[in-house]
Amino acid sequence: MAQKLTLISHKLCPYVQRAVIALNEKGVPFERVDIDLANKPDWFLKISPLGKVPVLVVTGDDGKEIALFESNVICEYIEETQAGAKLHPQDALQRAQHRAWMEFGSTILSELWGLETTGDPAVFESKRQAVAAKFARVEEALGKGPFFAGEHFSLVDAVFAPVFRYFDVFDELTDLSVFADTPKVRAWREELAKRPSVRTAVGADYPQLLHAFLVRHDAHMLKLAA
Ligand SMILES: N[C@@H](CCC(=O)N[C@@H](CS)C(=O)NCC(=O)O)C(=O)O
């Protein structure tokens, strides 16, 4: 069935980026519609039960639209329905492990959000350590590289690339030092940053936009960094 894919997006959202990266890796054409999350349109609230991006709207030949939410589910759908490079292992057990690490990538992001908003140095430090401990676990899971599972780029890479990109900007604002003892994670991060599917998943203005967003929202964090 011929389909049209429309990704409802926000320019800064790392969950959106993982879906964009998966679509880019597959070479699938899609339309991206950015919305203002501070002023969510009614049509968006109708199709997004949690009011969150990304949402992938799949339009069938018959014009019927199905809206999918949750970024990892969207990535799985892209993998299952689109031709192109395989982004999941063939083996069921390995695939399950990859799914678990995709979830792990979401958990790291939610811990980062907490880091941004705290004004208490002790809370900041304990959260910073929690994030560093998570990356230490990622370090243990990594092999020779260059990607999470070796030679082939997978959905785990698509999930972590935007996390690392977020750190690029975050690191300029505050001293997180969460990669100090994780050489494999650092090498992985550098490899992903070079990947065309990753680089083109955001606009050229992404660092400036994210920087401005963090500065606007995270006065406490900046104070701690000073
Ligand atoms: N679990 C969701 C998380 C998505 C998410 O948190 N998106 C944020 C933007 S990065 C959002 O839409 N926030 C708007 C809101 O919560 O009101 C997923 O993986 O898709």
From TrEMBL:
Superkingdom, taxonomy of origin: Bacteria
Pfam family name, one: GST_C_2
A GO-annotated cellular component: cytoplasm
Domain GST C-terminal: 91-221
Enzyme Commission numbers on file: 2.5.1.18
GO molecular function term, any single one: glutathione transferase activity
Domain GST N-terminal residues, every copy: 3-86
Enzyme class: transferase
Gene3D superfamilies per the UniProt record, alphabetical: 1.20.1050.10, Glutaredoxin
Catalytic activity reported: RX + glutathione = an S-substituted glutathione + a halide anion + H(+)
PROSITE patterns registered for this protein in UniProt: GST_CTER, GST_NTER
InterPro entries noted in UniProt: Glutathione-S-Trfase_C-like, Glutathione-S-Trfase_C_sf, Glutathione_S-Trfase, Glutathione_S-Trfase_N, GST_Omega/HSP26, Omega/Tau-like, Thioredoxin-like_sf
Keyword vocabulary terms for this entry: Transferase
Entry-linked PANTHER family: GLUTATHIONE S-TRANSFERASE OMEGA, PTHR43968
Protein name per UniProt: glutathione transferase
Organism: Bradyrhizobium jicamae
